[in-house]
Amino acid sequence: MYKINIICFTTLFSFFSSYCNAQTENKAIDTEVHSTDKGALFFNKNKTDRITLPFGYSNISKQGSIDAILSTIQNEKKLKELHALNFEKVIKKDLISLPEEYDVFLPFSENVNDKYDIIKIASNFLSYGAHSLYFVAVYNTVRYAEPFIEKVYLISTKDSKPIDMKRIYLHHEGEMGFAHYTLFNIAENYIISIQDYEFSEAPLTLRPLHKYQILPSGKFSRYYDNDGFYKNDEEQGMVKNHQKDGKWMEFKSNRHIDLQRYSEFTDPYTYLEAEYKNGSPVGTRKFYKLLQKYNEETGEPILNTRKKGRLIYTEIYKEGILEKREFPL
Questions:
Q1: Which 8-state DSSP code applies to residue 137?
Q2: Which of 43, 142, 252, 313 could form a disulfide with 327 if both were Cys (CB 3.0 to 4.6 A apart)?
Q3: How far apart (Å, rounded) are the C-alpha atoms in residues 291 and 163?
Q4: What are phi and psi of 88, to 5 degrees?
């Protein structure tokens, strides 16, 4: 399934126009964010609205059967806790483009902001040192008679300036009973666990559990339980102090691949050669076309056929911030 990477916050509050564009072409945020009565972002600082950890679905890493997974997804108590977040302040949808990072292929990916009527930010928040973490909910009013929370994002801020964000919750029901879910848990040590589920003809695909930590910069970074060499179907490299460190190779879908421009390619997967320091990207990252064959029956990639194709583009990072992206002629 395609993984749709981050798009960006735009205009008004420079909400990710300087940072985001998929953690992309621009540098850190310069403009302070102010709340208004017209729906701009509202960063509450009332200490009585702080959330006590842990928060979320604490057992997502311990499920061993479909029944257990369904029981967790349908847990009414947890759903009430999620909906109990005070999502009061409406964000005008023409002021924001939502970043996406799906492990599943969903409709409305190209113009997601045009398809949702209600986006709200909660007054509840988490404190983490000098940073505050806020929750943004996206209500789907297109496919359902009654609006409900389909996605939740966690935004890290410092001095009312947004720094990074990550989708932590998803409840999407598609055609023919197919459904996609993401559940999360934020532990007392602020380690964020995210688990993706896909119900289809399989009937269940359980994606790997991913963990994230908050770096001193306020950005979210992958967290690994054990140090040493790490390898799975999507990435491989060394882990030091629970963070990516040194050279890594990553094999993932990439939204920056223009399939019309590269018409000989049938999918947007890239072979990335990257380097990290203390969990943040550094230096030059090289994105090559990932060449791979697929199983004719399942459509899944055959991992041992993967190899590096031609160079598509490069990214240059400085202190974890993307300075420049270059496409060769």
A1: E
A2: 313
A3: 34
A4: -110, -35
Confidence tier at 41 by pLDDT (50, 70, 90): low
Q: Please write the tens of the pLDDT for every residue from 96-155.
A: 555 553 333 333 334 444 555 578 889 999 999 999 999 988 887 666 666 688 889 898
Dihedrals phi, psi of 67, to nearest 5 degrees: -60, -40
Characterize 291-325 residue by residue with b for buried, 16 or more Cβ atoms within 10 angstroms of its Cβ, and e for exposed: ebeeeeeeeebeeeebebbeebbebebeebbbeeb
pTM of the model: 0.77
CA distances, 61 to each of 204, 214, 321 (Å): 16, 20, 32
Q: Does residue 199 sit in helix, strand or coil?
A: strand
**Own/partner pairs, 197-206, CB within 8 angstroms, 24+ separation:** 197/69, 197/73, 198/1, 198/103, 198/104, 203/66, 204/66, 204/69, 206/69
Rounded Cα gap, residues 99 and 213, in angstroms: 19
Residue 275 pairs with which residues in a beta bridge?
Answer: 247
DSSP label of 232: -
Dig out the tokens for 136 from the structure.
């943004």
Contact 120, 137 (CB under 8 A): yes
